[in-house]
Amino acid sequence: VQLQASGGGLVQPGDSLRLSCAASGRTFTNWKMAWFRQTPGKEREFVAVITWNLGTTYYADSVKGRFTISRDGAQNTVTLQMNSLKPEDTAVYYCAAAQAVGDSYSQSSYPNWGQGTQVTVSS
After folding, report:
1. How many CB atoms lie within 10 A of CB 72?
2. What pLDDT is recorded for position 39?
3. Residue 20 CA to chain centroid, in angstroms?
4. Which of 122, 114, 120, 123 is nearest to 9 (CA)?
5. How many angstroms separate the CA atoms of 97 and 17, rounded?
6. What is the pLDDT of residue 27?
7. Is residue 52 within 8 Å of residue 78, measured between CB atoms?
8. Angstrom distance (rounded) from CA 31 to CA 53
9. Residue 60: which of 46, 70, 71 has the closest Cα?
């Protein structure tokens, strides 16, 4: 499984940004795709997850109502639309993939990771 994340950048508070994760290497039926983020000195933190089959989504409380995760089965991509960005959203964002079983919120449940993409929210 290969995951390629893109779309990070420098934005101002209140702005929007869209991250994309291109997935390849297998079919993703019965899999789940997630976004995590990490700041220096901290554990990687769950942001959002989507199941490939039904498109069921779950979000961290800190991003609920502002971020939207979606998937495109034809393009094998997962997108994280981030609106109303705050300085505390600043982090390196990672996409991850795993079979759709087990704990969706723990990074240890995901054996497949893309490279990170930096998101900086600053005025």
Report:
1. 11
2. 97
3. 8
4. 120
5. 21
6. 87
7. no
8. 7
9. 46
Print pLDDT tens along the chain (123 aa): 999 999 999 999 999 999 999 999 988 889 999 999 999 999 999 999 999 999 999 999 999 999 999 999 889 999 999 999 999 999 999 999 999 888 899 999 999 999 999 999 999
Per DSSP, the residues of the chain read: -EEEEE--EEE-TT--EEEEEEEESS--TTEEEEEEEE-TTS--EEEEEEETTT--EEE-TTTTTTEEEEEETTTTEEEEEE-S--GGG-EEEEEEEEES-S-SS-GGG--EE---EEEEE--
Q: Tell me which amino acid residue 110 is.
A: Y
Phi-psi region of 10 (alpha: psi -120 to 50; beta: other; left: phi over 0): beta
d(CA 35, CA 57): 11
pLDDT at 50: 97
Cβ atoms of 117 and 93 within 8 Å: the answer is yes
